[in-house]
Amino acid sequence: MFAITQRFWWPAMEPEVREYVEACSLCARNKNSSRTRAGLLQPLPIPSRPWAEISVDFVTGLPTSNGNTAILTVVDRFSKMVHYIALPKLPSAKETAVVMMDSVFRIHGFPRDIVSDRGPQFVSRFWKEFCKLIGATASLTSGYHPEANGQTERLNQQLETGLRCLVAQCPAAWSKHLTWVEFAHNSLPTSATGMSPFQCVFGYQPPFFPESESEVSVPSAHALVRRCRRIWAAARQTLIRQGDRVKRAADRRRRPAPVYQPGQRVWLAAKELPLQVESRKLAPRFVGPFPVSRVINPAAVRLRLPRSLRVHPTFHVSKIKPVKESSMVPDPKPPPAPSNDRRWSGLHCEEAVGSTEARQRLAVPRRLGGIRPGGTTMGGSQPHHGP
């Protein structure tokens, strides 16, 4: 802008230049965004009781311990109770269902909703049919957005931290300590509910030292039910307040996302896409544009992607940005469809470095704010030169 104002002037020059730059497809694909993340926090609904809604995830990359190399983390979204289940390998969809039946559902019953990432186990037809048969909804996070299942991701981090402290001298012994890491988490109060997961689910705190416990009479069944309901009601109110605090804190670092419509064209962030390019440093920061095929909710959309890209088409709004259109900028020649093929570069053919046409386009803009090459405006009058 500074260089242009030194030599030219025309009415509404600054807004026209900004409009031209915002609509430049080359800039849109290759410039990093310095803006805050798009999309305000969309918290999941608060469950009404323990183990009605759960989230699951895997911990992998562990050394072999008693024949186990992975952990399945299952979290109750209401009480924050967790079960850590050691596994010999990353299971298939069918094996995951069997583990859930044997280790979770036999204790707590069937949930109404299961939140997971888009791992191969959870996007398979078997898993979808399994959830349908037990009366549960299979809720999947948007592509390359693990924050959508942040509760389970955070517990996985805590698990790894605890195991590092316990098995620093012998990493292969991690499976022996898994039970006590789980017990420690479930017996300690959480900031979300203000009570331990044990107390939230069962209505009492498990004794740590049984010999020091005083003799108490067994409460009646009605008293136990009333106490559990009081605890659940208090826990739910605390969860709602905590969720509001988390949302306010998160939204301070975010901005409202644009309201997208089906058919609207958007750019897609290329950072996490499995694109085979010669240099990630010099690769485009965004690919596309792609049309929006469906708006799932204010924080997630589904795009119409080429089959060659081979990724799930649902993305969080922080991973896309709208295409800016302007009458001053002609529609660019669409780039080759992105794919996992190593031959794809993500650039226009005419933008190859060193090409004659590319040098001409960089040297003389085709049209900028009403100026034609040669220094004349679209109206035919000469522009006003600066000092």
Brief characterization of the structure:
Residues 46-205 form the Integrase catalytic domain. The chain is of the alpha+beta class.
3D structure, described in words:
The chain is of the alpha+beta class. 31% of the residues lie in helices and 16% in strands. The strands form 4 sheets. A 5-stranded mixed sheet has the order 4-3-2-5-6, with helices on both faces. The chain has a 5-stranded antiparallel sheet with strand order 11-10-9-8-12. Strand 9 and strand 10 form a beta hairpin. The longest helix is centred in the middle third of the chain and has 31 residues, at 221-251. The radius of gyration is 28 Å and the shape is elongated. The two termini are 15 Å apart. Residues 46-205 form the Integrase catalytic domain. Keywords: Aspartyl protease, DNA integration, DNA recombination, DNA-binding, DNA-directed DNA polymerase, Hydrolase, Magnesium, Metal-binding, Nucleotidyltransferase, Protease, RNA-directed DNA polymerase, Transferase. InterPro entries: Integrase_cat-core (IPR001584), Integrase_H2C2 (IPR041588), Retrovirus_Pol_polyprotein (IPR050951), RNaseH-like_sf (IPR012337), RNaseH_sf (IPR036397), SH3_Tf2-1 (IPR056924). This is Gypsy retrotransposon integrase-like protein 1.
